[in-house]
Design a protein that fits this description.
The chain has four helices and three strands; from the N terminus they run βββαααα. It is mainly alpha-helical. The protein has two domains: 55 residues; 82 residues. A three-stranded antiparallel beta sheet has the order 1-2-3, with helices on one face. Strand 1 and strand 2 form a beta hairpin. Helix 3 runs antiparallel to helix 4. The N and C termini lie far apart (82 Å).
Length: 151
């Protein structure tokens, strides 16, 4: 025999007796009255336990559920989740910082490449009598420019 579906509630009548009752329809009609008790505290306690254990089968409850251990496991999982969440946020912040640094470095490289291009253009425009094609600055400028352009 199946037990009455949850959620259960505590109902009362005019004689101050308390009933454990199962689900009701939208009009407040109770589908099933489970039992009659003379103590509201007992009725409330039984209803609270039945509703709290609704996700377990009767067999699981009969075998014994260590609720304290389940609460500890839940708390550990929640702590682990929070720690992983913080680690993920830190990783995202670091990644954002690295992306920003890379963007700045790329912009700086582009500006330096442009400046080197301009410097080489100016050096090439110097009249031959003033040009120093063997000067080491030419080689360094060409090498730096080729490296910046990935050549």
């Amino acid at each position: 025999m199946e037990h009455t579906p949850t959620p259960w509630i505590v109902g009362d009548d005019e004689d101050s007796d308390y009933y454990l009752v199962g689900p009701h329809d939208g009009d407040g009609v109770v589908y099933q009255s489970v039992t009659k008790l003379h103590s509201e505290a007992n009725a409330r306690r039984i209803v609270a336990c039945v509703n709290a254990l609704a996700s377990f089968t009767t067999e699981q409850i009969e075998q014994g559920i260590d609720l304290v251990e389940l609460v500890k496991q839940r708390d550990k999982l929640a702590d682990d989740y929070r720690a992983q969440s913080l680690a993920l946020q830190a990783a995202k912040s670091m990644q954002a910082g690295e992306t920003e640094r890379a963007d700045k470095a790329e912009a700086q490289r582009d500006r330096l490449t442009e400046a080197l291009d301009l410097a080489l253009t100016v050096l090439r425009s110097v009249p031959d009598e003033y040009a120093m094609p063997d000067h080491p600055v030419w080689g360094k400028c060409r090498a730096a420019l080729a490296a910046a352009k990935g050549e």
